[in-house]
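Side project, low priority. Logging it here so it doesn't get lost.
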Amino acid sequence: MASSHSRRSGLPSPSPAVEWLSLTDLGRLYGVSAVQTGRILVAAGLRERSGEPTVEALRLGLAVMGPPRHHHHSALWSRQGCAAVLERDGLMPMAQRSLVSLWADLLSALQLGAPGISTSAEEMARELPQELVRPVNLALCQLGSSFRVQPPQRPGDPQRKGQRKAGRRESLR
C-alpha cells in the first residue's frame, strides 16, 4: 500500500535500484551545470521550460515530483534513466572521462616506447573494456597519437570466418 501512496503523492518510491537526483546533482556527474542539463532534458521532451517534468518523463519513471521546497515542488530525476539521454547528447560521466584520459595517455606513451617497459600498446589495449574503445580512440586522436585500439572481433565478422577456414585447412593437412 505504501508504494501506491508514494506514486499518488509523486514522491520517489523507496526502490534501491533507482537513484533520484536533483538537476544540479545530475549535471555534476557529467561536469555540466543544472542549466545545461535542463536544456538537454527540454530538447529531449522530458522537461518543460518551466522546469517541471513532462507527462512523458513522469510516465517513463525518469522523473518524480519531490517534496515542496521554497514554496514550489522540485523534480527529482532518475540517474540511470537520464544517463542515456545525456550521453546521447555527447556528455560523458566525469569518472569515465578520467578513465578514458588515463587509458589514452598510457597507450600513447606505450606506443612511443620507453626503456624498462616490456609491454606494448597493442598488448595493453587488449585489457581495455569494450565500452571505452571508442572514447579512448577519440582521446588518442586529440592527443595526436596515431595509435588506435582495435575493437574486439565478433564471432560473425567476415575476417574471423576467413581465419577460421584457413585454420581448418591447416589442421586438415
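Brief comment: Confidence is low (pLDDT under 50) at residues 1-14, 160-173.
Revisit when time allows.
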